[in-house]
Design a protein that fits this description.
alpha+beta; 17 helices
Length: about 675
C-alpha cells in the first residue's frame, strides 16, 4: 500500500478521499488554487501545494503542475476524484509514465469509454442495446442537422467528452437545432476542451439507472448493484437512491452483467459506473460509462456496507477486490440529496457569496450512518463562480424507501444555510411530492411537477413574524418575559417606568412590508401583526452560534412554535419544521437616502459571470422572450431574454466582459 497519496481535486470529494486515506494510515497531499488557499480540503490533508490561479484551467486542470507536486512531495499515487482530470487519458498516462499510480482505470480504458461516440460504437459491436442516434466523427453542423432530422424530434445533443449535464440540449424542432448545437459546442469546449457532440433520440418518460462496477488487476470484476438517478434538473442529478425502486432481481442481474461485460470489453480496472436509460416497459439502453468514482457513490456504500474509496486504493496498489459477486448483498434503502448554492425559483442559477451560517443535523461524515453528510465547505467559506456550487451531500439510510424518505425530510428540516440561496426548501418539497413518494420516477419529473415543486412564494405566517421579532429582542439583550431579579434595574425583560414598552418592527416579506408591534403593559406582552394584539411569550435556548443564530420557542395567542432564527445583514432567516422564510428588517432611517441606480429598470445579471454572446444592439426592436445575450457561469450557459416587447435603448457590456450579480446588462424602452 502507498504511504503518500496526492489528491488532485478540491471540495467535497477531496475531503472524502482524505478521510478514508487517514483511516488507512496513508499520508495525504492536497493541491489548491488561489481561490482555495483556506479551503476545507486543504485543512483536511497533511500537506498542501499551491498549483495556480482560481480558474480551473490555471490550476486543477494543469496536469504538469499536479504531477510536479506529486514528485516534490514523494506521492506514490494520485487520486483524481471526479471532474477536472479524473477522465483525462493523457493525465493517467503521464502519471503512469512518471511511476506514479493513477487511482483509476488505465489510460486505454479511459480512451475507450471517455468518448461517448466511441463507447457507443464499442457497445454496439458487443451487442449492447443503444438508443437510436448518430455517434460518428462527422461534426459538420448541416450534416448533424440532417442526422437529427432523420432520427426524428425531439433529439438530445450531448457533448462526446461530457458529463454533469454540461454540453447537453434537448431540441424540439429542426428549426431550433443549429442554435442549440452551437451552444452545446461552446459549453463543451469550455468544460472539456472538446466540442464534439453526438445526437440521440430523446426518450419520453425515461429512467436513469446506473450500475456501479469494480475490477482489479487480477481479472476480477463485480457489480455493486444499481442507483436510480432519474430525478434531474438541467440534465444534472438532484436525488440519487439505491436500490432502484421497482427493480426486479432478474432485471438487476441483466443490467449488472451487461455493465460487467462493458467493463471487461475495455480491460477496466478500478471503480466505474455504467449508465443506462430505461423505458417504462423495462427495456434499457447503454448511455455511457463514467471511468471514475461518481458523486452519488455514498448511496452504494450505504446499502452494501463497503467503502468504495478504500476499494479504489487497494485495487490501485495491486490488491484483489475485497469481495466477490456472491458476497455482495443489499441492506435497506439509501437516498442522497445534493445541497447546492443555487436558486430554484430562478432556473436553478448558481448563488455566489459567503456561507455566513451553516447548520446541519446530527450526522456522521464520510462514513455510513443513519444520516451522513459529505461536505467540502464550512461556515464562513465563499461559494465562488469558479467551481461547482455544491455545499454538501446529505445521505440517509432506512430499512426501506419510506423510512429513508422520512429520514431525509427530517434531515432537510435541520439543514440551515444563510448567505447564499440554496435548494433545501425545493428538496423538501420534492421529498413530499406525490409522484416521488409513489416512486413514479423519470427524468422529466421536476418539470412535470413544476407547479407544486416551484410554487409562488407564500406570505410569512404570524408565527414566523413572531419568531423573527423575538430574535431581534433577544439580540438586543431583552430576556424572556418575567425573568429578572427583584431589583427592576437588573431586569432585562423590557421593564419601563410606568410598566409600558412598545416597539414596531417592519419586516419586508417578498417585497411587501409587514408590521409587527411588540408591546408590554405591566407583565403582559402582546404582538400585533395586523390582526390585533395577541398574547406573546418567548424563550431562547442554547445555540451553537449565540451571536448569529437563536434557538427560540414562542407562544402566540396560546399556540406554541419553535425554530431557529439567524440574524445576518439586516435579514432574519427563520427555520422551522415547516420550512424556511427570509425576512428583511426595514429601517426607515437607513433607507431614507435611497436613490434609483443610474440605469434603473433594465435587465440585470442574475449571477456573476462572463458575457459570451450578444444578439442585439441599441435601436433594435425586440419581442417578449427573444434572446438578448448569453452569459456563462460555472461553465454553464444562461440565456437572458426580453421580458416584454420593446426597443433596446442601450447594451452596457461587450462579449468577454465579466459582470457581477445585479449589474445592468440591457436597457429596454417602449
Amino acid at each position: 500500500m502507498f504511504d503518500t497519496l496526492l489528491i488532485a481535486n478540491r471540495g467535497e470529494i477531496a475531503c472524502r478521499v482524505a478521510a478514508t486515506a487517514r483511516r488507512m494510515g496513508i499520508r495525504t497531499v492536497a493541491v489548491y488554487s488561489d481561490a482555495d488557499a483556506n479551503a476545507r480540503h486543504v485543512a483536511s490533508c497533511d500537506q498542501a501545494v499551491h498549483i495556480g490561479g482560481a480558474e480551473p484551467r490555471a490550476s486543477y486542470l494543469r496536469a504538469d503542475a499536479i504531477l510536479q507536486a506529486a514528485r516534490d512531495t514523494g506521492a506514490q499515487a494520485i487520486h483524481p476524484g471526479y471532474g477536472f482530470l479524473s477522465e483525462n487519458e493523457d493525465f493517467a498516462k503521464a502519471a503512469a509514465d512518471a511511476g506514479i499510480a493513477f487511482v483509476g482505470p488505465p489510460a486505454s480504458a479511459i480512451a475507450a469509454m471517455g468518448s461517448k461516440s466511441a463507447a457507443k460504437a464499442l457497445m454496439e459491436k458487443a451487442g449492447v442495446p443503444l438508443v437510436p442516434g448518430y455517434h460518428g466523427d462527422n461534426q459538420d453542423p448541416q450534416f448533424l442537422k440532417s442526422q437529427a432530422d432523420a432520427i426524428g424530434y425531439p433529439v438530445l445533443i450531448k457533448a462526446s467528452a461530457g458529463g454533469g449535464g454540461k454540453g447537453m440540449r434537448v431540441v424540439e424542432s429542426s428549426g431550433a437545432f443549429l442554435d442549440a448545437l452551437a451552444s452545446c459546442q461552446r459549453e463543451a469546449a469550455s468544460s472539456f476542451g472538446d466540442d464534439r457532440v453526438l445526437i440521440e433520440r430523446y426518450l419520453q418518460k425515461p429512467r436513469h439507472i446506473e450500475i456501479q462496477v469494480f475490477a482489479d488487476t487480477q481479472g476480477n470484476c463485480v457489480y455493486l448493484f444499481e442507483r436510480d438517478c432519474s430525478v434531474q434538473r438541467r440534465h444534472q442529478k438532484v436525488i440519487e437512491e439505491a436500490p432502484a425502486p421497482g427493480m426486479t432481481q432478474e432485471r438487476r442481474q441483466a443490467m449488472g452483467e451487461a455493465a460487467v461485460a462493458a467493463a471487461r470489453a475495455v480491460g477496466y480496472v478500478g471503480a466505474g459506473t455504467v449508465e443506462f436509460i430505461a423505458e417504462p416497459d423495462g427495456r434499457f439502453y447503454f448511455m455511457e460509462m463514467n471511468t471514475r468514482l461518481q458523486v452519488e457513490h455514498p448511496v452504494t456504500e450505504m446499502i452494501t456496507g463497503h467503502d468504495l474509496v478504500e476499494w479504489q486504493l487497494r485495487v490501485a496498489a495491486g490488491q484483489p477486490l475485497p469481495a466477490r459477486q456472491e458476497d455482495l448483498r443489499i441492506a435497506g434503502h439509501a437516498i442522497e440529496a445534493r445541497i447546492y448554492a443555487e436558486n430554484p425559483e430562478k432556473g436553478f442559477l448558481p448563488s455566489i457569496g459567503t456561507l455566513a451560517y451553516l447548520g446541519l443535523p446530527a450526522h456522521t461524515a464520510f462514513v455510513n450512518g443513519d444520516i451522513r453528510v459529505d461536505g467540502g465547505v464550512r461556515m464562513g467559506d465563499t461559494i465562488t463562480p469558479y467551481y461547482d456550487p455544491m455545499i454538501a451531500k446529505l445521505i440517509v439510510h432506512g430499512a426501506d424507501r419510506d423510512q429513508a424518505r422520512a429520514r431525509m425530510l427530517q434531515a432537510l428540516a435541520q439543514t440551515q444555510a444563510v448567505g447564499v440561496q440554496t435548494n433545501v426548501a425545493f428538496l423538501s418539497r420534492l421529498m413530499k411530492d406525490s409522484a416521488f413518494a409513489a416512486a413514479d420516477l423519470d427524468t422529466g419529473l421536476i418539470e412535470r411537477q413544476r407547479a407544486t415543486l416551484l410554487p409562488e412564494p407564500e406570505a410569512a405566517g404570524a408565527s414566523v413574524l413572531a419568531l423573527a421579532s423575538a430574535a431581534v429582542l433577544v439580540r438586543q439583550g431583552l430576556g424572556a418575559p418575567g425573568k429578572g431579579g427583584a431589583d427592576p434595574w437588573d431586569a432585562r425583560d423590557g421593564w419601563r417606568l410606568g410598566g409600558r414598552y412598545h416597539r414596531e418592527l417592519q419586516w419586508v416579506d417578498n417585497g411587501t412590508t409587514r408590521k409587527a408591534l411588540v408591546a408590554r403593559d405591566g407583565a403582559a406582552w402582546t404582538l400585533d401583526c395586523g390582526d390585533g394584539p395577541k398574547a406573546f411569550l418567548w424563550r431562547a435556548h442554547a445555540s451553537a452560534n449565540p451571536n448569529l443564530a437563536y434557538g427560540l420557542r414562542i407562544t402566540l395567542d396560546g399556540h406554541e412554535s419553535a425554530g431557529t432564527v439567524v440574524l445576518h445583514a439586516d435579514r432574519a432567516n427563520v427555520f422551522t419544521d415547516a420550512g424556511s422564510h427570509a425576512l428583511e428588517l426595514y429601517d426607515p432611517l437607513a433607507h431614507s437616502q435611497d436613490t434609483q441606480g443610474e440605469h434603473g429598470g433594465g435587465l440585470t445579471a442574475p449571477m456573476p459571470g462572463k458575457i459570451i454572446s450578444i444578439s442585439v444592439k441599441a435601436g433594435d426592436t425586440v419581442e417578449k422572450g427573444q434572446p438578448l445575450l448569453v452569459m456563462e457561469a460555472m461553465k454553464m450557459e444562461h440565456t437572458i431574454s426580453a421580458p416584454a416587447d420593446g426597443k433596446v435603448a442601450e447594451v452596457f457590456y461587450a462579449v468577454g466582459d465579466q459582470v457581477t450579480e445585479g449589474a445592468e446588462l440591457v436597457a429596454i424602452g417602449e
